[in-house]
Amino acid sequence: MDGAKISTSVLSLVNDQLDVKPYGHGHLITLPLAFYDDDQITLFAEPFEGGVRVTDQGTTAMRLHMADVDLQNARVADSWNRSVAALGVKSLAAEEGIVGAWGTVDEIGRLVLMVAEAALRVDQLRWLATDRRPVQFRDRVVSQLNAIARANEQVTPNAPLPQTSGRTRQVTAAVGLDHERRVYVQAMGASNREQAAEHCYYVFSHTKVPRDRVLAVAAGTRDAWSSALLDELGQVTDVAFFDERDDLRSQLQGRLRRLEGVG
Predict the structure, then answer these.
(1) Which domain of life is it from (predicted)?
(2) Looking at the chain, which residues constitute the CATH 3.40.1350.10 domain(s)?
């Protein structure tokens, strides 16, 4: 194998797996690069001051929040800044929670690769999370799902949810052995309710799985969540509240019974 064949193979992979779609006033760019959990990197490119800017829309920070990383911690903040240093003077890293950069339209290819590389570096900060932290909400949800599900209703943590694009997005868990009748569950923790709700809305609004097979589980009670967030989520899924007696059990078992054709 020579260098030309290697270049052709790599370029072919990029060409086949690069996905660019119109989104709002810009474009979503999904790259053949993935975080440690196989979730592919998706960036947003938009017009900016006569040129273009490329950002992760805060998704990398959201991933760290969900991994219980304290972004206000001095060590974490310093590591964040070092991770995005390669973006240089045109970095948008000063904007809280955003990994991004801007430049001319002709530089967009370089900007996309630079921002993707910085996002991968930042994501590695999850290993700075303390080892002795409380049980994460998503793990509490999975534990409760196991308690609710019968023996023949297997609970699969970190389940791949089919998307309309043909890709998959990871959700908290799926309940059921039959892939055509399983229920997909997404946990929404209380550490950052707005980001958790936005992520849940995104994955459920882009899935080809019917509404009666998806369910959001929110930390706490209904009163802890804004009505605006719940109204928006209501467009794509129902919400069970973890601390409201039997709410999760009732909604999950109701879905499973309907899928089985019982009641």
Answers:
(1) Bacteria
(2) 137-260
Q: What is the block-wise mean pLDDT of the chain (263 residues), using blocks of 10 residues?
A: 79 80 89 80 90 88 80 81 71 68 89 90 78 72 87 82 92 89 94 92 95 95 93 96 92 89 53
Let me know: does 114 contact 87? Beta carbons within 8 Å. Answer: yes
Q: How far apart are CA 86 and CA 183, in angstroms?
A: 42
How does pLDDT run across 48-78, given as a tens digit for each residue? 888 999 998 888 888 887 777 877 778 888 8
pTM of full prediction above 0.90: no
Q: At what angle do helices 59-66 and 193-205 cross, to 10 degrees?
A: 110
